[in-house]
Specification:
Elements (H helix, E strand, L loop, with lengths): L12 H11 L5 H11 L3 H12 L4 H5 L1 E4 L2 E4 L12 H10 L5 E5 L5 H9 L4 E6 L2 H11 L5 E4 L14 E6 L14 H6 L13 H13 E11 L4 H10 L3 E7 L4 E7 L5
Parallel strand pairs: 3-4, 3-6, 4-5, 6-7
Antiparallel strand pairs: 1-2, 7-9, 8-9
Length: 269
Amino acid sequence: MSAPVPTEPRPNPRSEIIARLRAAGCVFAEDEAGLLIGEARTTTELEKMVARRVEGMPLEYILGWASFYGTRVAVDPGVFVPRKRSELLVRETIVLAPLDAVIVELCCGTAAIATVLTKALRSAEFYVSDIDPVAVKNADRNLGPLGGHIYEGDLFDALPKRLQGRVDVIIANAPYVPTAELRLMPPEARLYESKVALDGGADGLDLHVRIAARAESWLTPGGHLLIETSKRQAPRTAELMTQGGLIPRVIHDRKIDATVVIGTAPASG
């Protein structure tokens, strides 16, 4: 009787998934494989999730959430995915916001920033707005249960007029990618995220111009406007704040490659 022919051991499913993700260009293939396996309820669902990721769909859309500043934030398809660099906005707001602050987040997307701030600033009031109805619905999922107020519309026009002159901190992660540079963005963003959340106009500063021009009238004396931007664009954003009557300064975090321009309204008296 002949001896049985030895067979190659079958790779375990996790190893197979990691190999597929790596072949598709996923830099953090091992971490992503773990997340996908953890979220899938069946092997069929897992296969569909892996296939979508291999095709290039952002991981956050597949999972239905993103981890931002230690908090799981719901992310709907098409909505801007929160980036690590925006955590600088969170940190600076925590430093600047007074007790019982009134805080506004413009171009809120998922409202990730306001959502995580509710943990650190428990006495604050939060108002967020976005022009994209899909983003507004997503923001309501995250911030609504925490008592935040969500509005659909164009920047300040979406907010209740009663807030004018009463806001302590305005936060804006408005789109700042120049139109001509959208084609250079990673496919995950370029092909899947809403263009309105990415396109900042010819120089990337269309929204910065509009926000900086109106912010002072919404801020309390000594209140602050925080705008995320790039290191290259920061001097121009600061100049726009000066033109709008604010006193600007630039904060840069090299570790997460984040830049925020902070404009402070003159104190009363």
